[in-house]
Amino acid sequence: MKKIYVRAPVLSATGYGEQSRFALRALRTRPDLFDVYIQPIPWGESGWIWQQDEFREWMDERIKITQTMLAKKILSPDISLQITIPNEFEKICPVNIGYTAGIETTKVSPQWLQKGNEMDKILVVSNHGKNTYVDTKIPLNEGREYKLETPIEVVWETTPFAPEAEPIEGFEPQSDFNFLVVSQFGPRKNFTNTIEWFVEKFHDTDVGLILKTHSKGASLIDLGIVEESLLALLSEFPSRKCKVSLLHGDLSEGQMRGLYEHDKVKALVNIAHGEGFGLPLFEAARVALPIVTIPWSGQLDFLQVDGKNMFNAVDYIIKPVPQEAVWEGVVQRDSSWAYADKESYQNCLEHVLSNHEDCVEKALELQEHIHANFGDKSLYERFCASIWQPSEEETIWESEKSKMEIT
Prior knowledge:
- By secondary structure, the chain is of the alpha/beta class.
- The protein is built from 13 helices and 18 strands.
- It has helices at 15-28, 54-71, 110-116, 127-135, 191-201, 220-234, 253-260, 279-286, 300-303, 342-354, 356-373, 376-387, 392-406; strands spanning 2-8, 34-40, 79-83, 95-100, 121-124, 138-139, 145-146, 152-154, 178-182, 208-212, 243-247, 265-270, 291-293, 304-305, 308-309, 312-313, 316-320, 336-340.
- The strands form 5 sheets. Strands 2-1-3-4-5-8 form a 6-stranded parallel sheet, sandwiched between helices. It has a 6-stranded parallel sheet with strand order 11-10-9-12-13-16, sandwiched between helices.
- Helix 5 (191-201) packs across helix 10 (342-354).
- The protein is globular, with a radius of gyration of 22 Å.
């Protein structure tokens, strides 16, 4: 058995928080291999998860034990698992593993290469993340180049699948046919164009766009910020017949399933500039909801079958990231990401509206592929194997040790 020290935003209501909890759920399936210790870290200005269940109780217990052992300086883990952006990777244990969502652009920063090379292994959530990390090279003198030397593996991720759908109190779409957006209200998600181009297309049509979104969290202050931004955007279209509605705040896993499976929700839309993995896309595909998105970045790992797009593909071009999106040490000034084509996006929306039954058939085929290849059991096994696999000698020793303890 290995003592594993998990330093991650395990309590944050963010994509990295979901990724962290996936890792913990995976490790928890192998108590024979891993003795888990947890150090929670903050993630930006995001809120915290609110669910109180058996898994949360287990996390809280492990956090308390970890804090006690750290305070007494008696925690000596074998492995550190650091779930964050690579800028924050550190050598803190005999074996150090970084697990990151990677990057949504075409290049990682020099800091990521440096910090990555301090790790014993890097795990990423998609082949896009892996390829971008591996393909980034910095020219040095005499034809040499600085690149990632650390082994890197794709382990994907998943979220809990509620046993049944739950209703959302007070939620009833005004239109019978609605597109759904589940993402942060921010520049990387291409949110403004997602809305404006929809309204321009369906200005005189009774079609709805449901926005399950937030800016930084689920607070009332955040709700006010999002409402103000949305109203300002929609004020340009005072006579529109199409409906744009806002869902803000925390929803349970069952309520999210209920949203995806609502009989008036007909497709999920995502024209973000790039995704590390794209959990809302994954969750929608898991319940056979048709999808409109670009054929680029992390989502292709589960949205393509044998190289074939199992979704409504929006054309795009790769161009440099805008100045306002540059994040020193993370989003490189000289990197690029995808820009969806407006006409293609609108044509895809029209295609889904006019050919919904055909789109559902494709979504059902994709759902079958996801259930066969991205189930919890297989992903948990894949993740645990990437952390540590005992040798034959170690397996025999653990077995003998257990017998002695029983005796």
